[in-house]
Amino acid sequence: MDYPGSNSRPHRRSVSDCVDVLGQSRSPAFPYFKDWNFEFGSNLRPKICIVSSTAAGLEQILPWIFFHKVIGVSTFFLFVEGKAASPVVSRVLESIPGVEVIYKTKELEEQQAKSRIWNETWLAKFFYKPCNHELFVKQTLNMEMAIVISRDAGMDWIIHLDTDELIHPSSAREYSVRQLLADLPEDVDMVVFPNYESCVERDDIIEPFTEVSMFKNFDHLPIEAYLGNYRRAIRGNPNYFLTYGNGKAAARVQDHLRPHGAHRWHNYMKAPKEIKLDEAAVLHYTYTKFSDLTSRRDRCGCKPTKEDVKKCFMLEFDRAAFIIASTATEEEMLRWYRHHVVWTNKALSLKLLKRGILTRIYTPMVDKISTDTLQGQVLVVC
Question: Which domain of life is it from (predicted)?
Fold first, then answer.
């Protein structure tokens, strides 16, 4: 099936076919970017795909793809805009086996304008609003299209993830999301990966996946521990988590599957059987870099007033961050970031680690991929 905006080629070049993908590098991590030929043959089941809407650069997308390939994801449907859609970035992405790049073209927009998603009453309150509301609708439209593409590609499971999120299949043998999903009963339609939110301990993080090891937990926490430590855990912020707290779901690809927002799936013809995993999670690396304050601000044209930001952002912390990034000096922003995001109180962190509020997860650091391999290099000469 050809669909608007996709890259369809009779021959898919591999990264190794190129003269040089990212230029010469002294980094030992560089070979990771030169061999993407993982053994994901048709005999390996289940076949898992990830759909994502992204405007990120290679320094974020490549480690994200590599990590998920290592744990068993075979296919990625990337709806790209901004930097991700630039010729330099998209050319690299298209060269990776298992990656389908889908561009925001006029044809794509015309097709999505006819989508049945526009008839969903639960989504109507987000229609025709700017910033995060617009993104939420766009993600839902992309998820709907990805369902069709995934069925044509013979996928068994589909997951919607952002490029600042990693699946953490900690309860599976061999640390494999494929093994995790293969072990599920056949009547399970949906699997929820509870949310673990990053807790940065420095204000100079460059590579979140390899520099952040502390996360805040809720679903895998006794309720007494949560209630007894709530005020210490929020540290003056509006909510327990800085951003979302409802995790992400994987859905079995089947008839009548539909998206239900960016975090869930549903079915037009039945109530799907859903389970929540007891150990596995989705690791959300949110506001891990100080520059995230200004990058979010630069993507939104709303006025930095309390009334206006309500039209742009769903979450209170996002609203506060946008206002401070739009009105404060660099020094004031850094001071705000250290107070609201960075965990500088070691005694408090240790106390909450002992009580299960915080947890250490080092696994993503094992596959260390340095942005040094990307910065200052000449990209793709094929």
Answer: Eukaryota
Q: Which two tokens stand for residue 27?
A: 């980094």
User: Tens digit of pLDDT for each residue in 43-93?
Assistant: 788 999 999 999 999 999 999 999 999 999 999 999 999 999 999 999 999
Give the H or E element holding residue 353: helix 346-354
Q: What is the DSSP letter of 317?
A: H
Query: Cβ atoms within 10 A of the Cβ of 332, count?
Result: 11
* Residue 24 domain flag: yes
Q: Using alpha carbons, list the distances in angstroms from residue 164 to 1, 85, 207, 286.
A: 30, 18, 11, 7
- Cα–Cα distance measured from residue 210 to residue 70, given in angstroms and rounded to the nearest whole number: 15
Do 295 and 190 share a structural domain?
A: no
Distance of CA 371 to the CA centre of its chain: 18
| Interval 128-152: pLDDT, tens | 888 989 999 999 999 999 999 999 9
Torsion of CA 51, 70, 33, 159, to 10 degrees: 0
180 and 142 inside one domain: yes
Quick one: how far is CA 27 from the chain centroid? Answer: 26
For residue 231, being part of any structural domain is answered with no
The pTM (predicted TM-score) of the whole model is 0.88
Query: Quick count: other Cβ atoms within 10 Å of Cβ 151?
Result: 15
Between CA 227 and CA 249 the distance in angstroms is 26
